[in-house]
Design a protein that fits this description.
Number of domains: 2
Bound molecules: pyridoxal-5'-phosphate
Number of helices: 14
CATH topology of the largest domain: Aspartate Aminotransferase, domain 2
Structural class: alpha/beta
Distance between the termini: 64 Å
CATH class of the largest domain: Alpha Beta
Helix content: 25-40%
Number of strands: 12
CATH architecture of the largest domain: 3-Layer(aba) Sandwich
Order of helices and strands: HHHEHEHEHEHEEEHHHEHEHEEHEH
Shape: globular
Length: 400
């Protein structure tokens, strides 16, 4: 390891910049950790091979095979453990596989899980395909409308949250919800993709597990699929490790490198996403065609107070509701945009727009409207250009 390891008392952006730095050998070395691609790990002799196996079985982080990951993986794991303030990290091939890993590792036949109704929608497919077949019951609830304590059953093993929620960005009271669950011995997992792990630290607020789609802000450039799970204790690390190994999960060293590279600029990118998205949200809030803007950093947002308490910033996701618009009008608006790409996913440098599917909106108890919602990801373009594009698309839609 480098003789100049980052000091623990440095501020978090400095630590993130230097986390997992390459070691110096013979007095010199590259700034970045090398990309160590391998399937086979080669040993000096059979005794060294056996020794590695024993140390690994005892829980030491040594690799005896490529699937366990080598230096590049270790550097990324260390960086995200530092970012989320956890104990151990698991790297998976996508954000969805990170979610599936947590569900399969913690739930057994006969178990019950409570899942917030605003979570990343494909989780419901994991439930309807895999979990139901395994005799696991998932119950969806509204963390802002339902009484969590009364929903917990003796066989409830997991409380699964996402804050702010997908699509409508409903901010949850994570400390309060976690306290209720943990009091009853229920593990708390939360999807932290919205904040990139930078604006929100769920493990410090009571969650046991923080999940991220590194596909989004950690990558930052729309060129990577990856998931990350960070757990807060050795016991949970052991539980997840068993499932991770059994499922044969791993990621490529090149992908680990890309995520590590993305982490170096995460704070500066997110600060700019926030500035741009705030300007756009304020603009939308003033438009007569817009009946509601979903963005927790706006003082008019119902989650604003909780967001101020539990988050240090807001990301580039802004949804808004059209006054009186049909889904066809929402699609026409998206088609009229020139600068925004049309597509799912988000977290890259570029702006994106997509109309929300009504069936997705109806999954959220918070949703009482009957109008159409458009989700924007505000990228790193000049916000004046984005606002001009939104303004022309709004007038074009109105003129129809
Ligand atoms: C995109 C997303 C995921 C899934 O990530 P993939 O890498 O696309 O599988 C999970 N959670 C949230 C909140 C997301 O936005």
């Amino acid at each position: 390891m480098s003789a100049k390891a980052p000091a623990a008392n440095l501020r978090s952006s400095t630590r993130l910049l230097h986390a997992g730095a390459a070691a110096l050998r013979d007095g010199a070395g590259p700034v970045n950790v090398p990309v160590v691609r391998t399937s086979t790990v080669r040993f000096e002799n059979t005794a060294a091979h056996a020794d590695h196996h024993h140390r690994r079985a005892a829980g030491e982080r040594v690799a005896s095979y490529g699937r366990h990951g080598l230096d590049t993986h270790r550097a990324l794991e260390d960086a995200v453990v530092g970012l989320e303030g956890g104990h151990h990290a698991f790297l998976t091939p996508s954000g969805l596989s990170a979610i599936t890993l947590v569900l399969l590792a913690l739930l057994s036949p006969g178990d019950h899980a409570l899942v917030a109704d605003g979570v990343y929608a494909p989780l419901r497919r994991v439930d309807s395909t895999l979990l139901q077949r395994l005799g696991i019951t998932v119950e969806y609830f509204s963390p802002t409308h339902d009484d969590l304590a009364s929903l917990l059953r003796p066989n409830t093993r997991l409380l699964y949250l996402e804050s702010p929620s997908s699509l409508l960005y409903e901010v949850l009271d994570l400390p309060a919800l976690s306290a209720i669950a943990r009091d009853r011995g229920v593990t708390v997992a939360t999807d932290n993709t919205w904040s990139g792990g930078w604006f929100h630290r769920p493990l410090a607020l009571g969650a046991n597990i923080s999940i991220q789609a590194a596909t989004k802000y950690i990558s930052g450039h729309s060129d990577l699929m990856q998931g990350i799970v960070v757990v807060d204790s050795p016991a949970l690390a052991a539980k997840l490790s068993t499932a991770y190994e059994a499922l044969g999960l791993t990621i490529g060293a090149d992908d680990a490198y890309l995520a590590l590279r993305g982490l170096r600029t995460l704070p500066v990118r997110l600060a700019q996403h926030q500035r741009n998205a705030t300007a756009v949200a304020e603009f939308l809030h003033q438009q007569p065609q817009v009946s509601r803007v979903f963005y927790p950093a706006l003082p008019t947002d119902p989650g604003h107070t909780l967001w101020k308490r539990d988050f240090s910033g807001a990301s580039g996701l802004v949804s808004f509701e059209f006054r009186h618009a049909t889904p066809a009008a929402a699609d026409a608006f998206v088609d009229a945009l020139a600068l925004f790409g049309i597509g799912a996913s988000w977290g890259g440098y570029e702006s994106l727009a997509l109309a929300a599917q009504p069936e997705r909106l109806r999954e959220h108890r918070q949703w009482t409207g009957d109008a159409s919602v458009v989700r924007l990801h505000i990228g790193l373009e000049d916000p004046q250009d984005l606002i001009a594009d939104l303004a022309q698309a709004l007038s074009a839609t109105e003129a129809r």
